[in-house]
Amino acid sequence: MLQNQQWSKVKKRLDSFTCESLKERVQFTVTNYRRAHDQLGRAFITVDKKEVLNMCTITSEAALNKRTYEIKRKKQIPYTDWSQESVVWNEAHEWVLDEGVFAQYDFFDAVEEYFQNSIEESLESNNMLIKIFALIDRRAGKRTLEKMKQSILCEKEIVQFFYQLRCKAEGIRIHG
């Protein structure tokens, strides 16, 4: 599991996939909070030293708790009924991920899956983080990126942001 590997090694491998045109501009960072009970913290992605995606475990857990409560209320499951907890948690987690709220562990899970996938699988992934990694991947060529012009319009704003960033860096016209 990647969380157990040394972050510097994971970061080096992740950076090795970044295309030349964005190598100096996109940075991946992980911060752990020593005093947190689980010692997790957050991961974040910066572009030109500006944070564009924050994956904070505390923020994610708060959103998960809220969604879990909403699902239980909607399905009329007593809040103290733990028998369906894993089903409810999975539904809440999918909901939160779809909203673009990620925990540090979601970042590590996405990186691990990205390392195992082909570039084609990563570009077609339903996981926003994996798709973002793939959009800035040196293995995604200009023709591939150009073919995505229409389909990218259906993606979340942050995915579109990374697509536009890559296209601009590569000199690919995306409008007109």
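That was protein one. Protein two is written in the same sequence-then-structure order:
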Amino acid sequence: MRLFAPLYERALRWARHRHAPRYLAALSFAESSFFPVPPDVMLAPMALAQPQRAWSLAWLTTWTSVLGGLAGYLIGWLAFAALEPWLRGSSYWPAYQQAVAWFDAWGAWAVFIAGFSPIPYKVFTIAAGALAMPLLPFALASLVGRGARFFLVAALMRWGGARMEPLLRRHIDRIGWAVVALVAVGAAVAYTWR
């Protein structure tokens, strides 16, 4: 089923829009605190469309993501009691419980791992605030973890450049469904660990 190819084409068109960096910044900020769509879906086509700007786009994504993570931290710190009933009834509750367990086991390293991985980062930012994790280690782990992830995406797009675009176009549906499968497996593993 060709679901991801039309989305990819649209993302490439949006990536060339003159306000695309603003949209990328807004998406990066929102994803770190409350929004479910990761910024990679904009960063990758933008870096592919403009490889000479890949590093500046990765920096923009990193900094706005860390700022969004600080907003998520504030949500957890100031409003977790109000948020908890909704969270318990949502699909994010097992991920939240996993985040708390990881914080107990690894402290700030849990933020680094969540920042680099496809695990919902917003869950970790809110959990860090709810648990009153020290702010400086949280911010540094976020900066390094998110930066590593976004610079890796930008590097792959810059390195691949024009050669990568036809390859991505040809295999985007397989890649998209593989990511969906990985998220499903990750959710199943997190559910069994709770």
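Helices lie at 4-15, 20-31, 40-49, 54-89, 93-106, 108-116, 121-130, 135-193. Keep this in mind for the problem set.
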